[in-house]
Amino acid sequence: MRTALTALVGCRHPIVQTGMGYVAGARLAAATSIAGGLGVIGAATLSAAEMRAAIRRVKERTDAPFGVNLRADADDAAERVTVLVEEGVRVASFALAPRRELIARLKDAGVVVIPSVGARRHAEKVAGWGADAVIVQGGEGGGHTGPLATTLLLPQVVDAVEIPVIAAGGFFDGRGLVAALAYGACGIAMGTRFLLTSDSPVPDEVKKVYLAARETVVTRNVDGVPHRVLNTPFVASLERSRLARAVLNGARFQRLSGLSWRSMLREGRRMRQGRELTWAQVLQAANTPVLLRAAMVEGRADLGVLASGQVVGVIDDLPSCRELIERIMAEAETTLARLR
User: Fold this and answer.
1) Burial of 23: CB neighbours in 10 Å, binned 0-12, 13-18, 19+
2) Gap between the Cα atoms of 55 and 154, Å rounded
3) How do the pLDDT tens digits run along the chain, 340 residues long?
4) From CA 133, how far away is CA 151, in angstroms rounded?
5) Are strands 227-230 and 143-144 parallel, antiparallel or unpaired?
6) Pair type for strands 216-219 and 227-230
7) Cα(270)–Cα(47) distance, integer angstroms
8) What is the C-alpha to C-alpha distance for residues 146 and 227, in angstroms, rounded to an integer?
9) Residue 256 in contact with residue 293, Cβ under 8 Å?
10) CATH tag, 4-202+316-339
11) Which of 8, 123, 162, 265 is the one with CA 20 to 30 A from 236?
12) Which of 61, 18, 23, 22 minimizes the C-alpha distance to 37?
């Protein structure tokens, strides 16, 4: 199946695995790209040196194209862009809109720039700045999310920009891929579905929690902005002991990361810009990586935040990335044949 996405990045199938922190490392990204999709390393929770090492591990496993997801507001964003260029990474993706100069620098080096957006105006902005494509995530998606459903947001963005649009939020099978194509998208991006594969590094005990889950909740208690997660007792407890828990997690994150308290507070102030957050929320936002790491690395679903899209309610197996992508493409062909 050839689309504007496969032509742009060189993957065989129009399926993107999103760059989830602590989940989308070299193992998952390589498995996705080997299977014909576009694997993406989630570098927001990696140091620049760790990011370079992950890139090289993917390159050791496959010659297929892959991407790296960066934080556009990171202090070392320019340094990380240099790493991507030096290592010959095909795609740079961003959860927040990258600065115009970062886009220009990446494009000049031949790197495809694909920011993720949650609103039409954001898509128009990055398209005007030279982005090659956009990932549009509707409210069904996991992690930081917006209020508008994919079925409403996607056609708005497709009609508003002239660059390729990749649909995210609520996708897990071949029928969804065909629906996205019908709306005008060039492919789909999935996070939760790839998290729940045998190639995902998430501990088995945490995967079992996901497979047993049937609902998600959108909360501001994680870091002050809407965050779609599994509805667990721990998430409910964040509301009851926000400040105390924020301080405790902050101390733990400080020890794990090696960051100074001054660096953490600077990070918190940056997150607070443009948002009406309490200082408890600011501190919680600065150490959100601890809550993710507790679940995704340490296997403590009872002490961590489990970001999840609404599709978790219809997922009941753990295929390999190859099995998943082959299944999606077969379902898409069957669906197209039925429509014809």
Assistant:
1) buried
2) 31
3) 999 999 999 999 999 999 999 999 999 999 999 999 999 999 998 999 999 999 999 999 999 999 999 999 888 999 999 999 999 999 999 988 899 999 999 999 999 999 999 999 999 999 999 999 999 999 999 998 999 999 999 999 999 999 999 999 999 999 999 999 999 999 999 999 999 999 999 999 999 999 999 999 998 877 778 889 998 888 877 765 555 555 555 565 555 445 566 666 666 666 555 555 565 555 555 567 777 788 888 888 887 789 999 999 999 999 999 999 999 999 999 999 999 8
4) 19
5) antiparallel
6) antiparallel
7) 19
8) 9
9) yes
10) 3.20.20.70
11) 265
12) 18
Cα distances (Å, whole numbers) of residue 150 to 100, 115, 146, 170, 272 = 26, 17, 10, 7, 27
The H-or-E segment that residue 135 falls in is: strand 134-137
Q: Two tokens at 160?
A: 């508003």
Q: Where in the chain is the domain with CATH 3.20.20.70?
A: 4-202+316-339
Report how far residue 72's alpha carbon sits from residue 308's, in angstroms, rounded to the nearest whole number. 23
